[in-house]
Design brief:
The chain is of the alpha+beta class. The protein is built from 13 helices and 21 strands. Helix content is about 25%, strand content about 20%. A hairpin with a 2-residue loop joins strand 5 and strand 6.
Protein backbone atom coordinates (compact mmCIF):
# COMPACT_ATOMS: atom_id res chain seq x y z
CA UNK A 1 0.00 0.00 0.00
CA UNK A 2 1.44 3.42 -0.95
CA UNK A 3 1.77 6.11 1.73
CA UNK A 4 -1.13 8.12 0.32
CA UNK A 5 -3.38 5.05 0.01
CA UNK A 6 -2.52 4.23 3.60
CA UNK A 7 -3.37 7.73 4.85
CA UNK A 8 -6.72 7.50 3.02
CA UNK A 9 -7.37 4.07 4.56
CA UNK A 10 -6.67 5.42 8.07
CA UNK A 11 -8.86 8.46 7.43
CA UNK A 12 -11.65 6.21 6.09
CA UNK A 13 -11.60 4.08 9.25
CA UNK A 14 -11.87 7.15 11.50
CA UNK A 15 -14.57 8.71 9.30
CA UNK A 16 -16.62 5.49 9.38
CA UNK A 17 -16.56 5.42 13.20
CA UNK A 18 -16.53 9.06 14.37
CA UNK A 19 -17.84 8.41 17.89
CA UNK A 20 -15.00 6.12 18.92
CA UNK A 21 -12.25 7.15 21.35
CA UNK A 22 -9.49 7.65 18.75
CA UNK A 23 -5.99 8.71 19.74
CA UNK A 24 -4.37 10.55 16.85
CA UNK A 25 -1.60 12.66 18.47
CA UNK A 26 1.70 11.16 17.30
CA UNK A 27 3.48 11.22 20.73
CA UNK A 28 0.54 9.39 22.38
CA UNK A 29 0.30 6.83 19.56
CA UNK A 30 4.06 6.28 19.78
CA UNK A 31 3.85 5.73 23.54
CA UNK A 32 1.04 3.19 23.07
CA UNK A 33 3.22 1.41 20.48
CA UNK A 34 5.91 0.68 23.10
CA UNK A 35 6.54 -2.06 25.65
CA UNK A 36 9.62 -3.17 27.63
CA UNK A 37 11.54 -4.43 24.56
CA UNK A 38 14.31 -2.01 25.60
CA UNK A 39 15.52 -4.63 28.12
CA UNK A 40 17.26 -5.96 24.99
CA UNK A 41 19.82 -3.66 23.33
CA UNK A 42 19.26 -5.65 20.14
CA UNK A 43 15.46 -5.23 20.06
CA UNK A 44 15.82 -1.60 21.15
CA UNK A 45 17.78 -0.88 18.01
CA UNK A 46 15.70 -3.13 15.74
CA UNK A 47 12.35 -1.68 16.79
CA UNK A 48 13.43 1.96 17.15
CA UNK A 49 11.36 3.23 14.24
CA UNK A 50 8.36 0.88 14.50
CA UNK A 51 5.13 2.58 15.52
CA UNK A 52 1.41 2.48 14.83
CA UNK A 53 -0.16 5.47 13.04
CA UNK A 54 -3.37 5.55 15.03
CA UNK A 55 -4.69 4.18 18.34
CA UNK A 56 -8.15 3.56 19.70
CA UNK A 57 -9.76 2.54 22.99
CA UNK A 58 -12.97 0.56 22.39
CA UNK A 59 -15.51 0.88 25.20
CA UNK A 60 -17.19 -2.45 24.53
CA UNK A 61 -17.15 -5.52 22.27
CA UNK A 62 -19.47 -3.88 19.71
CA UNK A 63 -16.99 -1.00 19.24
CA UNK A 64 -14.12 -3.49 18.96
CA UNK A 65 -16.03 -5.41 16.31
CA UNK A 66 -16.67 -2.20 14.34
CA UNK A 67 -12.93 -1.32 14.45
CA UNK A 68 -11.97 -4.81 13.32
CA UNK A 69 -14.48 -4.73 10.46
CA UNK A 70 -13.30 -1.29 9.29
CA UNK A 71 -9.59 -2.22 9.47
CA UNK A 72 -10.22 -5.53 7.68
CA UNK A 73 -12.11 -3.69 4.92
CA UNK A 74 -9.22 -1.24 4.49
CA UNK A 75 -6.60 -4.01 4.93
CA UNK A 76 -4.96 -2.08 7.77
CA UNK A 77 -2.73 -3.90 10.29
CA UNK A 78 -4.12 -4.09 13.84
CA UNK A 79 -2.18 -4.78 17.03
CA UNK A 80 -3.79 -5.36 20.41
CA UNK A 81 -2.32 -3.69 23.50
CA UNK A 82 -3.03 -4.83 27.06
CA UNK A 83 -0.86 -3.41 29.82
CA UNK A 84 2.10 -2.93 27.47
CA UNK A 85 4.51 -4.81 29.77
CA UNK A 86 5.67 -7.44 27.25
CA UNK A 87 9.42 -7.53 26.90
CA UNK A 88 10.11 -8.82 23.40
CA UNK A 89 8.28 -6.07 21.51
CA UNK A 90 5.28 -8.40 21.26
CA UNK A 91 2.80 -5.57 20.70
CA UNK A 92 5.05 -3.31 18.63
CA UNK A 93 3.69 -3.01 15.08
CA UNK A 94 6.30 -3.88 12.46
CA UNK A 95 4.10 -2.49 9.68
CA UNK A 96 2.27 0.46 11.26
CA UNK A 97 -1.51 0.49 11.37
CA UNK A 98 -3.81 0.72 14.37
CA UNK A 99 -3.11 -0.07 18.04
CA UNK A 100 -6.20 -1.18 19.93
CA UNK A 101 -5.94 -0.58 23.69
CA UNK A 102 -8.19 -3.27 25.10
CA UNK A 103 -8.09 -2.26 28.77
CA UNK A 104 -11.69 -1.03 28.90
CA UNK A 105 -12.94 -4.56 28.19
CA UNK A 106 -12.23 -5.45 31.77
CA UNK A 107 -15.22 -7.14 33.41
CA UNK A 108 -15.39 -10.42 35.28
CA UNK A 109 -17.91 -12.40 33.24
CA UNK A 110 -18.51 -15.34 35.59
CA UNK A 111 -17.14 -16.87 38.77
CA UNK A 112 -17.80 -20.25 40.27
CA UNK A 113 -15.91 -22.47 42.68
CA UNK A 114 -12.31 -22.53 41.45
CA UNK A 115 -13.04 -20.96 38.05
CA UNK A 116 -13.11 -17.38 36.75
CA UNK A 117 -14.05 -16.12 33.29
CA UNK A 118 -13.06 -12.53 32.54
CA UNK A 119 -12.67 -10.12 29.65
CA UNK A 120 -9.15 -10.01 28.25
CA UNK A 121 -8.47 -6.35 29.14
CA UNK A 122 -8.84 -6.85 32.90
CA UNK A 123 -5.70 -6.29 34.98
CA UNK A 124 -4.57 -9.44 36.79
CA UNK A 125 -4.56 -7.57 40.11
CA UNK A 126 -8.22 -6.73 39.59
CA UNK A 127 -9.10 -10.40 39.06
CA UNK A 128 -7.46 -11.36 42.36
CA UNK A 129 -9.17 -8.46 44.15
CA UNK A 130 -12.47 -10.09 43.23
CA UNK A 131 -11.62 -13.78 43.64
CA UNK A 132 -9.66 -13.59 46.93
CA UNK A 133 -12.69 -12.68 49.08
CA UNK A 134 -14.25 -15.90 47.75
CA UNK A 135 -11.16 -17.93 48.73
CA UNK A 136 -9.50 -18.21 45.31
CA UNK A 137 -6.42 -16.69 43.65
CA UNK A 138 -4.65 -16.91 40.29
CA UNK A 139 -2.61 -20.07 39.73
CA UNK A 140 0.24 -18.20 38.07
CA UNK A 141 0.85 -14.54 37.55
CA UNK A 142 3.72 -12.45 36.21
CA UNK A 143 5.60 -10.09 38.51
CA UNK A 144 3.86 -7.31 36.50
CA UNK A 145 0.46 -8.42 37.82
CA UNK A 146 -0.51 -4.90 38.92
CA UNK A 147 -0.39 -3.59 35.31
CA UNK A 148 -0.54 -6.65 33.07
CA UNK A 149 -3.83 -7.81 31.61
CA UNK A 150 -5.29 -11.28 31.34
CA UNK A 151 -5.17 -11.11 27.53
CA UNK A 152 -1.55 -9.91 27.62
CA UNK A 153 -0.51 -12.79 29.89
CA UNK A 154 -2.24 -15.22 27.54
CA UNK A 155 -1.02 -13.55 24.33
CA UNK A 156 2.54 -12.70 25.32
CA UNK A 157 3.40 -14.20 28.69
CA UNK A 158 4.45 -17.46 30.23
CA UNK A 159 3.71 -17.78 33.94
CA UNK A 160 5.61 -16.72 37.02
CA UNK A 161 4.54 -16.57 40.65
CA UNK A 162 2.62 -19.78 41.38
CA UNK A 163 4.30 -21.71 38.55
CA UNK A 164 6.19 -23.56 41.32
CA UNK A 165 2.86 -25.30 41.98
CA UNK A 166 0.90 -25.15 38.72
CA UNK A 167 3.59 -24.91 36.04
CA UNK A 168 3.37 -22.37 33.24
CA UNK A 169 0.03 -21.00 32.06
CA UNK A 170 0.17 -23.51 29.19
CA UNK A 171 0.15 -26.53 31.54
CA UNK A 172 -3.03 -28.56 30.96
CA UNK A 173 -5.80 -27.51 33.33
CA UNK A 174 -4.81 -23.86 33.85
CA UNK A 175 -6.62 -22.32 30.85
CA UNK A 176 -10.07 -23.82 30.29
CA UNK A 177 -11.47 -21.88 27.33
CA UNK A 178 -11.27 -18.64 25.40
CA UNK A 179 -13.65 -16.51 23.34
CA UNK A 180 -12.05 -15.09 20.21
CA UNK A 181 -12.92 -12.48 17.57
CA UNK A 182 -11.72 -13.09 14.02
CA UNK A 183 -10.03 -10.36 11.94
CA UNK A 184 -12.49 -10.24 9.05
CA UNK A 185 -14.79 -7.73 7.38
CA UNK A 186 -17.58 -9.50 9.22
CA UNK A 187 -15.91 -10.50 12.46
CA UNK A 188 -17.00 -13.83 13.92
CA UNK A 189 -16.92 -14.74 17.60
CA UNK A 190 -15.81 -18.27 18.43
CA UNK A 191 -15.40 -20.14 21.70
CA UNK A 192 -12.49 -22.56 21.91
CA UNK A 193 -11.92 -25.00 24.73
CA UNK A 194 -8.49 -26.24 25.79
CA UNK A 195 -6.36 -27.70 24.30
CA UNK A 196 -7.29 -25.90 21.02
CA UNK A 197 -7.54 -22.60 22.92
CA UNK A 198 -3.80 -22.81 23.61
CA UNK A 199 -3.01 -22.45 19.91
CA UNK A 200 -3.51 -18.72 20.50
CA UNK A 201 -1.34 -18.68 23.65
CA UNK A 202 1.99 -16.82 23.30
CA UNK A 203 1.12 -16.06 19.66
CA UNK A 204 1.39 -12.27 20.27
CA UNK A 205 -2.18 -11.61 19.13
CA UNK A 206 -1.20 -12.65 15.61
CA UNK A 207 -3.86 -15.32 15.11
CA UNK A 208 -6.97 -13.98 16.83
CA UNK A 209 -8.27 -11.30 19.17
CA UNK A 210 -8.97 -12.82 22.56
CA UNK A 211 -12.13 -11.42 24.15
CA UNK A 212 -12.52 -13.60 27.23
CA UNK A 213 -10.50 -16.23 29.05
CA UNK A 214 -11.73 -18.88 31.46
CA UNK A 215 -9.13 -19.93 34.02
CA UNK A 216 -8.94 -22.49 36.79
CA UNK A 217 -7.99 -20.88 40.11
CA UNK A 218 -6.00 -21.94 43.17
CA UNK A 219 -7.24 -21.94 46.77
CA UNK A 220 -5.88 -18.78 48.34
CA UNK A 221 -3.48 -18.62 51.28
CA UNK A 222 -2.11 -16.02 53.67
CA UNK A 223 1.34 -15.45 52.20
CA UNK A 224 4.51 -14.45 54.04
CA UNK A 225 7.27 -12.90 51.92
CA UNK A 226 10.91 -13.67 52.82
CA UNK A 227 14.29 -12.32 51.78
CA UNK A 228 17.13 -14.47 53.15
CA UNK A 229 20.82 -13.95 52.42
CA UNK A 230 23.81 -16.29 52.23
CA UNK A 231 27.62 -16.00 51.99
CA UNK A 232 27.74 -18.86 49.54
CA UNK A 233 25.79 -19.30 46.24
CA UNK A 234 25.64 -23.10 46.66
CA UNK A 235 24.09 -22.69 50.13
CA UNK A 236 21.48 -20.27 48.76
CA UNK A 237 20.67 -22.74 45.99
CA UNK A 238 20.42 -25.68 48.45
CA UNK A 239 18.10 -23.66 50.73
CA UNK A 240 15.85 -22.67 47.82
CA UNK A 241 15.84 -26.23 46.50
CA UNK A 242 14.84 -27.57 49.94
CA UNK A 243 11.80 -25.25 50.01
CA UNK A 244 10.91 -25.97 46.39
CA UNK A 245 11.18 -29.76 46.85
CA UNK A 246 9.32 -30.01 50.12
CA UNK A 247 5.82 -31.30 49.36
CA UNK A 248 4.58 -30.09 52.74
CA UNK A 249 5.79 -26.48 52.59
CA UNK A 250 3.06 -24.37 51.00
CA UNK A 251 4.74 -21.81 48.74
CA UNK A 252 4.04 -19.54 45.81
CA UNK A 253 7.48 -18.32 44.81
CA UNK A 254 11.13 -19.33 45.21
CA UNK A 255 13.99 -17.47 43.50
CA UNK A 256 17.77 -17.27 43.92
CA UNK A 257 19.82 -14.21 43.03
CA UNK A 258 23.61 -14.53 42.91
CA UNK A 259 25.80 -11.71 44.23
CA UNK A 260 26.00 -8.88 43.33
CA UNK A 261 22.38 -8.78 42.04
CA UNK A 262 20.88 -7.61 45.33
CA UNK A 263 23.32 -4.66 45.32
CA UNK A 264 21.01 -3.29 42.58
CA UNK A 265 18.00 -3.47 44.94
CA UNK A 266 18.63 0.05 46.18
CA UNK A 267 15.22 0.30 47.88
CA UNK A 268 16.21 -2.63 50.11
CA UNK A 269 19.73 -1.37 50.84
CA UNK A 270 18.99 -0.84 54.54
CA UNK A 271 18.34 -4.57 55.12
CA UNK A 272 20.95 -5.99 52.75
CA UNK A 273 24.70 -6.47 53.11
CA UNK A 274 26.58 -5.89 49.82
CA UNK A 275 27.97 -8.93 48.05
CA UNK A 276 25.51 -11.48 49.47
CA UNK A 277 23.57 -14.15 47.58
CA UNK A 278 19.82 -14.05 48.20
CA UNK A 279 16.69 -16.17 48.16
CA UNK A 280 13.25 -14.61 47.86
CA UNK A 281 10.42 -16.93 48.84
CA UNK A 282 6.70 -16.57 49.42
CA UNK A 283 5.51 -19.12 51.98
CA UNK A 284 2.07 -20.08 53.29
CA UNK A 285 1.56 -18.74 56.83
CA UNK A 286 0.72 -22.29 58.00
CA UNK A 287 4.35 -23.31 57.33
CA UNK A 288 6.13 -20.09 58.21
CA UNK A 289 7.36 -21.38 61.57
CA UNK A 290 9.66 -23.82 59.70
CA UNK A 291 11.58 -21.03 58.00
CA UNK A 292 14.02 -19.86 60.75
CA UNK A 293 15.27 -23.44 61.26
CA UNK A 294 15.71 -24.00 57.53
CA UNK A 295 17.59 -20.69 57.13
CA UNK A 296 19.90 -21.56 60.05
CA UNK A 297 20.52 -25.07 58.68
CA UNK A 298 21.83 -23.48 55.45
CA UNK A 299 23.89 -20.82 57.31
CA UNK A 300 21.72 -17.99 56.04
CA UNK A 301 20.30 -14.83 57.60
CA UNK A 302 16.78 -13.47 57.46
CA UNK A 303 17.03 -9.97 55.95
CA UNK A 304 13.32 -9.24 55.60
CA UNK A 305 10.04 -10.99 56.40
CA UNK A 306 6.53 -9.59 56.20
CA UNK A 307 2.98 -10.66 55.49
CA UNK A 308 1.94 -10.01 51.88
CA UNK A 309 0.21 -6.65 51.60
CA UNK A 310 1.55 -5.40 54.94
CA UNK A 311 4.74 -3.59 53.88
CA UNK A 312 3.43 -0.23 52.64
CA UNK A 313 1.96 -2.02 49.64
CA UNK A 314 5.41 -3.25 48.54
CA UNK A 315 5.95 -6.84 47.51
CA UNK A 316 9.17 -8.82 47.16
CA UNK A 317 7.59 -10.33 44.05
CA UNK A 318 8.58 -7.07 42.37
CA UNK A 319 12.22 -8.16 42.75
CA UNK A 320 11.61 -11.54 41.09
CA UNK A 321 11.14 -12.80 37.51
CA UNK A 322 11.84 -9.97 35.09
CA UNK A 323 11.48 -7.40 37.86
CA UNK A 324 14.99 -8.46 38.91
CA UNK A 325 16.14 -7.23 35.49
CA UNK A 326 14.12 -4.03 35.83
CA UNK A 327 15.55 -3.25 39.30
CA UNK A 328 19.09 -3.82 37.98
CA UNK A 329 18.54 -1.73 34.83
CA UNK A 330 17.40 1.19 36.99
CA UNK A 331 20.95 1.26 38.38
CA UNK A 332 23.07 0.01 35.47
CA UNK A 333 21.79 0.56 31.93
CA UNK A 334 24.59 -1.50 30.39
CA UNK A 335 23.09 -4.74 31.66
CA UNK A 336 20.80 -7.03 29.73
CA UNK A 337 19.42 -10.54 30.39
CA UNK A 338 18.75 -14.01 29.07
CA UNK A 339 16.05 -16.62 29.57
CA UNK A 340 17.04 -20.22 30.11
CA UNK A 341 15.36 -23.50 30.98
CA UNK A 342 17.41 -26.01 32.97
CA UNK A 343 16.91 -29.77 32.56
CA UNK A 344 14.54 -31.24 35.18
CA UNK A 345 16.83 -34.26 35.76
CA UNK A 346 19.90 -32.26 36.80
CA UNK A 347 18.96 -28.60 37.11
CA UNK A 348 20.80 -28.20 40.43
CA UNK A 349 24.13 -29.32 39.02
CA UNK A 350 23.64 -27.26 35.82
CA UNK A 351 22.87 -24.10 37.81
CA UNK A 352 26.04 -24.49 39.93
CA UNK A 353 28.16 -25.23 36.84
CA UNK A 354 26.89 -22.21 34.89
CA UNK A 355 27.39 -19.95 37.92
CA UNK A 356 30.98 -21.16 38.25
CA UNK A 357 31.72 -20.92 34.54
CA UNK A 358 30.25 -17.49 33.78
CA UNK A 359 30.06 -15.57 37.08
CA UNK A 360 31.30 -12.01 36.79
CA UNK A 361 29.86 -11.65 33.29
CA UNK A 362 26.58 -13.54 33.79
CA UNK A 363 24.87 -13.05 37.15
CA UNK A 364 22.73 -16.08 38.02
CA UNK A 365 19.06 -15.42 38.67
CA UNK A 366 17.17 -18.66 39.15
CA UNK A 367 13.40 -19.16 39.37
CA UNK A 368 11.96 -22.50 40.55
CA UNK A 369 8.89 -23.89 38.80
CA UNK A 370 7.21 -27.04 37.58
CA UNK A 371 7.45 -27.82 33.88
CA UNK A 372 4.57 -28.86 31.61
CA UNK A 373 4.91 -32.43 32.93
CA UNK A 374 4.86 -31.40 36.58
CA UNK A 375 8.60 -31.96 37.17
CA UNK A 376 10.33 -29.57 39.52
CA UNK A 377 12.96 -27.56 37.64
CA UNK A 378 14.49 -24.10 37.30
CA UNK A 379 14.41 -21.40 34.73
CA UNK A 380 17.01 -18.68 34.61
CA UNK A 381 16.70 -14.96 33.97
CA UNK A 382 20.39 -14.16 34.41
CA UNK A 383 21.68 -10.63 34.11
CA UNK A 384 24.40 -10.21 31.51
CA UNK A 385 27.08 -7.52 31.39
CA UNK A 386 26.50 -6.68 27.74
CA UNK A 387 29.43 -6.07 25.43
CA UNK A 388 28.07 -6.86 21.95
CA UNK A 389 25.74 -9.19 20.08
CA UNK A 390 28.50 -11.62 19.11
CA UNK A 391 29.49 -12.14 22.75
CA UNK A 392 25.83 -12.45 23.79
CA UNK A 393 25.35 -15.19 21.19
CA UNK A 394 28.50 -16.95 22.44
CA UNK A 395 27.14 -16.87 26.01
CA UNK A 396 23.84 -18.37 24.82
CA UNK A 397 25.81 -21.10 23.03
CA UNK A 398 27.70 -21.89 26.25
CA UNK A 399 24.36 -22.53 27.96
CA UNK A 400 23.17 -24.73 25.09
CA UNK A 401 26.47 -26.64 25.03
CA UNK A 402 25.83 -27.47 28.69
CA UNK A 403 22.36 -28.83 28.00
CA UNK A 404 20.50 -25.68 29.13
CA UNK A 405 17.76 -24.50 26.75
CA UNK A 406 17.78 -20.82 25.79
CA UNK A 407 14.49 -19.02 25.15
CA UNK A 408 16.07 -16.08 23.36
CA UNK A 409 14.53 -12.79 24.58
CA UNK A 410 16.41 -10.71 21.97
CA UNK A 411 14.16 -11.64 19.03
CA UNK A 412 10.65 -10.47 18.22
CA UNK A 413 9.42 -13.28 15.96
CA UNK A 414 7.34 -15.84 17.80
CA UNK A 415 9.15 -18.93 16.58
CA UNK A 416 12.60 -17.49 17.27
CA UNK A 417 11.81 -17.20 20.99
CA UNK A 418 10.21 -19.64 23.42
CA UNK A 419 8.02 -21.40 20.79
CA UNK A 420 11.23 -22.50 19.08
CA UNK A 421 9.58 -23.90 15.93
CA UNK A 422 7.01 -23.18 13.26
CA UNK A 423 3.70 -24.77 14.23
CA UNK A 424 1.37 -25.76 11.39
CA UNK A 425 -1.55 -25.58 13.87
CA UNK A 426 -0.79 -22.02 15.00
CA UNK A 427 -0.49 -20.93 11.37
CA UNK A 428 -3.73 -22.76 10.49
CA UNK A 429 -5.53 -20.74 13.17
CA UNK A 430 -4.21 -17.56 11.59
CA UNK A 431 -5.37 -18.66 8.15
CA UNK A 432 -8.82 -19.28 9.55
CA UNK A 433 -9.12 -16.23 11.82
CA UNK A 434 -6.95 -13.63 10.05
CA UNK A 435 -6.95 -14.56 6.37
CA UNK A 436 -5.43 -11.23 5.23
CA UNK A 437 -2.53 -11.29 7.74
CA UNK A 438 -3.57 -8.07 9.45
CA UNK A 439 -3.03 -9.09 13.09
CA UNK A 440 0.48 -8.12 14.24
CA UNK A 441 1.91 -8.90 10.78
CA UNK A 442 5.56 -9.94 10.61
CA UNK A 443 5.68 -11.66 13.99
CA UNK A 444 4.60 -15.17 12.91
CA UNK A 445 7.36 -16.52 10.67
CA UNK A 446 5.25 -19.57 9.79
CA UNK A 447 2.86 -17.33 7.86
CA UNK A 448 5.52 -16.72 5.19
CA UNK A 449 5.88 -20.46 4.58
CA UNK A 450 2.21 -21.34 5.10
CA UNK A 451 1.88 -23.02 1.72
CA UNK A 452 4.63 -25.49 2.58
CA UNK A 453 3.05 -26.58 5.87
CA UNK A 454 0.95 -29.73 6.23
CA UNK A 455 -2.80 -29.17 6.20
CA UNK A 456 -4.25 -29.63 9.67
CA UNK A 457 -7.79 -29.92 10.91
CA UNK A 458 -8.48 -28.35 14.25
CA UNK A 459 -11.81 -28.95 15.99
CA UNK A 460 -13.82 -25.74 16.23
CA UNK A 461 -11.67 -23.91 13.70
CA UNK A 462 -12.37 -23.88 9.99
CA UNK A 463 -9.13 -24.47 8.14
CA UNK A 464 -9.09 -22.36 5.03
CA UNK A 465 -7.13 -23.87 2.17
CA UNK A 466 -6.18 -21.80 -0.84
C1 LIG B 1 9.47 -6.06 34.78
C2 LIG B 1 8.81 -7.17 34.01
C3 LIG B 1 8.54 -8.37 34.64
C4 LIG B 1 7.90 -9.42 33.96
N1 LIG B 1 7.65 -10.60 34.59
C5 LIG B 1 7.01 -11.60 33.92
C6 LIG B 1 6.70 -12.83 34.56
O1 LIG B 1 6.93 -13.02 35.75
N2 LIG B 1 6.08 -13.79 33.82
C7 LIG B 1 5.71 -13.59 32.52
O2 LIG B 1 5.12 -14.47 31.90
N3 LIG B 1 5.97 -12.42 31.91
C8 LIG B 1 6.60 -11.42 32.57
N4 LIG B 1 6.83 -10.23 31.95
C9 LIG B 1 6.27 -10.00 30.62
C10 LIG B 1 4.84 -9.37 30.72
O3 LIG B 1 4.78 -8.47 31.79
C11 LIG B 1 3.77 -10.40 30.95
O4 LIG B 1 3.83 -11.42 30.01
C12 LIG B 1 2.37 -9.80 30.96
O5 LIG B 1 1.46 -10.80 31.28
C13 LIG B 1 1.97 -9.15 29.66
O6 LIG B 1 0.69 -8.58 29.85
P1 LIG B 1 0.33 -7.17 29.19
O7 LIG B 1 -1.12 -6.93 29.41
O8 LIG B 1 1.24 -6.11 29.63
O9 LIG B 1 0.60 -7.54 27.66
P2 LIG B 1 0.98 -6.63 26.43
O10 LIG B 1 2.43 -6.27 26.50
O11 LIG B 1 0.02 -5.52 26.30
O12 LIG B 1 0.73 -7.66 25.25
C14 LIG B 1 1.51 -8.82 25.14
C15 LIG B 1 1.16 -9.52 23.82
O13 LIG B 1 -0.15 -10.06 23.91
C16 LIG B 1 -0.97 -9.54 22.87
N5 LIG B 1 -2.30 -9.34 23.42
C17 LIG B 1 -2.66 -8.56 24.47
N6 LIG B 1 -3.99 -8.66 24.68
C18 LIG B 1 -4.48 -9.50 23.72
C19 LIG B 1 -5.77 -9.98 23.39
N7 LIG B 1 -6.83 -9.61 24.09
N8 LIG B 1 -5.90 -10.81 22.34
C20 LIG B 1 -4.83 -11.20 21.62
N9 LIG B 1 -3.58 -10.76 21.88
C21 LIG B 1 -3.41 -9.93 22.92
C22 LIG B 1 -0.32 -8.24 22.45
O14 LIG B 1 -0.63 -7.91 21.11
C23 LIG B 1 1.15 -8.57 22.62
O15 LIG B 1 1.61 -9.27 21.50
C24 LIG B 1 7.52 -9.21 32.61
C25 LIG B 1 7.79 -8.00 31.97
C26 LIG B 1 8.43 -6.99 32.66
C27 LIG B 1 8.69 -5.69 31.96
Amino acid sequence: MSDSARQSALAAVVAALPSLDWIKEAPKVKRLSRDFHWFSPILKQQLEDKFAELAVRPRNEAELSAIVAACAKQRLPLNIRGGGTGNYGQLIPLHGGVIVDITRLNAIVAMRDGVVKAQAGIRLADIEAQTRPLGWELRCLPSTWRLATLGGLFGGGFGGVGSINYGPLAAPGNVLSIRVMTMEEQPRIITLNAPEALLLHHAYGSNGIVLEIELALAPCHQWIEHLDTFDDFAAAMAFADAIARSPGIVKRQVAVMAAPITDYFTDLADVLTPGQHAVISVIGSENDALMPGLVAEHHGRCALRFAAGEHDGHSLIEYCWNHTTLQALKVDKTLTYLQSAFAAEHYHQQVLEMEQRLSGEVLSHIEFLRDLNGNLTCSGLPLVRYSDETRLNAIMQTFRDNGVKINNPHVCQIEAGKQGRVSAEVVAVKRAFDPHNLLNPGKLRGWDIRDTLPEVNIPGITTITT
